[in-house]
Amino acid sequence: MLNKDFLIHLEFEISNALENASEKDKRSYWCDGILMPDLEDDYSQKTINDKRKIALRAVIPKGQYKNKDYWWDLVLKFGKYSLRRYAKGKSLEDCVPNSENADWIELDVENKTIEVQLK
Q1: What pLDDT is stored for residue 40 in this prediction?
Q2: 3-state helix, strand, coil in the chain (%, to 5)
Q3: In whole angstroms, how far apart are CA 109 and each of 21, 38, 76?
């Protein structure tokens, strides 16, 4: 289920994973919030099942907010496990990969996009 609790959990796990990233350039970024899309149809069970992803908005600052333009497009990709849980209306918190590394997160600094792969 995509709700405030899940988004807060995801925000912290992204931040922890980026802090532990093996790629040094990822370590200076963190997540400071995730926003849902405006239209409920964008995250309906049918839409998620068909597209297997959802477009969100993430706040990804670097350093101490030196760059004022820190809003990024976030693509949340669903794996088999998270699709099943979402279809049943269950929590997705355990679908977030381990934050000991950031290999489930793709940062595109130039285009200000972040892709996150759930289990």
Answers
A1: 64
A2: 35, 25, 40
A3: 15, 25, 17
